[in-house]
Structures are given as C-alpha cells and as structure tokens.
Specification:
Elements: E1 4-17, E2 20-26, H1 28-31, E3 39-44, E4 54-57, E5 60-62, E6 66-72, H2 76-82, E7 89-96, E8 107-113, H3 120-129, E9 135-140, H4 149-155, E10 158-163, E11 170-171, H5 174-182, E12 189-194, H6 197-210, E13 213-217, E14 233-237, E15 243-247, H7 248-251, E16 254-256
Parallel strand pairs: 8-9, 8-12, 9-10, 10-11, 12-13
Antiparallel strand pairs: 1-2, 1-7, 2-6, 3-4, 3-7, 5-6, 13-16, 14-15
The protein binds flavin-adenine dinucleotide and FE2/S2 (inorganic) cluster.
C-alpha cells in the first residue's frame, strides 16, 4: 500500500482536558487512503533534539483531507506536540500498519481504555458505513478523562462508560463489565480493543474463554515505523503454533488475540 512522508500543516491543536489533546493536520494524500487501525509516525518540523517521530493512531479523517490524532502529553515528544500551534508543520509518515478487519454479519463490540480510545472514532465510522453499529465499552481512570463522547454516542449502538473511581458510568474496569455482559450473550460477537496491556490481556482471556474473535491494537515503542530497525518486537505464536517475534509496525499494530502473548 502507498505511504507518504510529507509536511502537514496543523489546522488545530486543542486540549480536551487534563493531558488529553486532539491535533488536526492537512494531509490529503494520507487521509484519502488511510483505513481504521492504521497509524502515522509524526514529529513537529521544529523539534530541537527530539528528532524521533512517534506513532499515533489515526483517530478520524475530516472532510477527506485532514488527519486527526488524539494523544496524551506524557513525555518529551508528546509535550512538544502539545505546544504546536495552528499553521505550524508536522512531518507525517503514513498511513502505516494493518487495519481492523470488517467481519460481515458479526456483532461488533469495541473496547477502549484511556487514550486507547484514539482509533475508535475512525473505526466506528467505517463500521457504520458497513451498516454495523458497534456497542462501545469505554473506560478511563476518571470522568474528566473520557473524551469524544458526543461523536462516539452518534457512531455506536450503545456507549457504555466505566471509570476506575466511579465518577461516571460503571465503577470498575471496563473488562469487568464486558465479561459480565457477555456471559449470557456472546453469539456472533467480534471484539475490537485498544488500551493498556493489562486491559488487552483481559480482553484476550475473555475471548479465549468464550471462544470468540478479538482483534487487539498493540503498542510498542517504535523507531522507524516501517519494519527496518527491528525495534518493536511483539512476542507471539503463529497460527501453526510456532513461537515468533512479530514486528508491531509491520505485522500489526492489529493482531488476533490468539497470535500475541500478553
Ligand atoms: C501503533 C501505535 C499507535 C499509538 N497511538 C497513540 C495515540 O493515538 N495516542 C497516544 O497518545 N499515544 C499513542 N501511542 C503511544 C505513543 O506513541 C507514545 O505515547 C509516545 O511515543 C510517547 O512519546 P513521548 O516522547 O511523549 O514519551 P517518552 O518520553 O518517549 O516516554 C514517556 C513515557 O511513555 C512511554 N511510552 C513511550 N512510547 C510508548 C508507546 N509506544 N506505547 C506506550 N507507552 C510508551 C514510555 O515508556 C514512558 O513511560 C501509540 C503507539 C503505537 C505503537
Ligand atoms: S519500529 Fe522499526 S521495525 Fe518496527
């Protein structure tokens, strides 16, 4: 698949509350071919010595030509990103990686934790285009860290919120509620998940227990994003049962849960 390495002019960079941000940049070449689950390697054009690009899931495509990313400012690269203003420029390489598969006739359930919500506005929009309206389970530490709620409400059959501190929705982990709800009704379900490793491990366990398909968006620290530096290994198993190290950027970031060790 084609990929582009281009200068993308920032249209907007907005704090959504706390450490959560949303940035939009004009990149029609990438926007026109990107698919849900894919990511871009980005860095501000003026970045001092923070030269490494960072991977970010494509959160949405706006008006067919603007890429949107959701991010938390947690370290050097993302704090620098948070300082960028409208009309500043990002170096943007993408679209990279594979995509969430669309499974005809399946009941889609999406599971997000924290900034793992990032790929879901794009995925849910694409599912809607296939006439699939997913049930969305979305967990965060606290109510202030729940973002994209209005859009997710529109794109989902049902949006189910969970918080660790009980300030919104179910009081507890998103996977606790998911497991409870699925216990009696898991026919034809396919799970799509993105979030912290412990959450993905729980999704994998639930999927294995119930014998249902689950696709996980995996994260690994990345150097190149295109399979050259071998810097993003994900230990796993092939469908034939052989142990392997997948490359998160090239073989993923989306993996069937049975392929990866968590
Ligand atoms: C395919 C993919 C998609 C991603 N999509 C998003 C997204 O949409 N939004 C978002 O906010 N983040 C996303 N991430 C994670 C994001 O790339 C990291 O948060 C970012 O690289 C941190 O850069 P930094 O310089 O700010 O932090 P650093 O100063 O490099 O590190 C700060 C802290 O973040 C941790 N960290 C660094 N890289 C990662 C990583 N790749 N995954 C998890 N923790 C990391 C470090 O261990 C450290 O604790 C994605 C990662 C991958 C692999
Ligand atoms: S980041 Fe270089 S091989 Fe994956």
């Amino acid at each position: 698949m084609a990929k582009y390495d281009l200068r993308a002019r920032i249209v907007e960079n907005e704090c959504l509350g706390g450490k959560y941000y949303r940035i939009r940049a004009h990149a029609p070449e990438i926007a026109s071919i990107a698919r849900p689950g894919q990511f871009c390697m980005i860095r501000p054009e003026i970045c001092g010595d923070a030269l490494m690009r960072r991977p970010f899931s494509i959160a949405a495509i706006r008006e067919m030509e603007v890429l949107e990313f959701a991010y938390t400012a947690i370290g050097r690269g993302t704090r620098l990103l948070a300082q960028q203003k409208r009309d500043d420029v990002l170096w943007c390489l993408g679209p990279l990686g594979n995509t969430f598969p669309m499974i005809e006739g399946a009941r889609a359930i999406c599971v997000a934790g924290g900034i793992g919500i990032a790929p879901f506005p794009f995925l849910n929009y694409a599912l809607n285009k296939h006439r699939v309206f997913p049930v969305m389970y979305y967990g965060a530490r606290t109510a202030d860290e729940l973002v994209y709620l209005e859009e997710l409400n529109q794109l989902s059959e049902k949006l189910i919120l969970c918080t660790d501190d009980g300030t919104a929705g179910f009081h507890g982990f998103v996977t606790q509620l998911l497991e409870r709800d699925l216990e009696n009704d898991f026919q034809n379900v396919v799970l799509y998940a993105c979030g912290p490793h412990p959450m993905l491990a729980q999704v994998k366990r639930i999927a294995t227990k119930l014998g249902i398909a689950a696709y996980l968006s995996m994260e690994e620290v990345m150097g190149c994003g295109i399979g050259i530096c071998i810097g993003c290994p994900i230990p796993g198993t092939t469908p034939e049962g052989e142990k392997v190290n997948y490359l998160c950027c090239k073989d993923g970031p989306i993996f069937p849960s049975s392929y990866v060790e968590l």
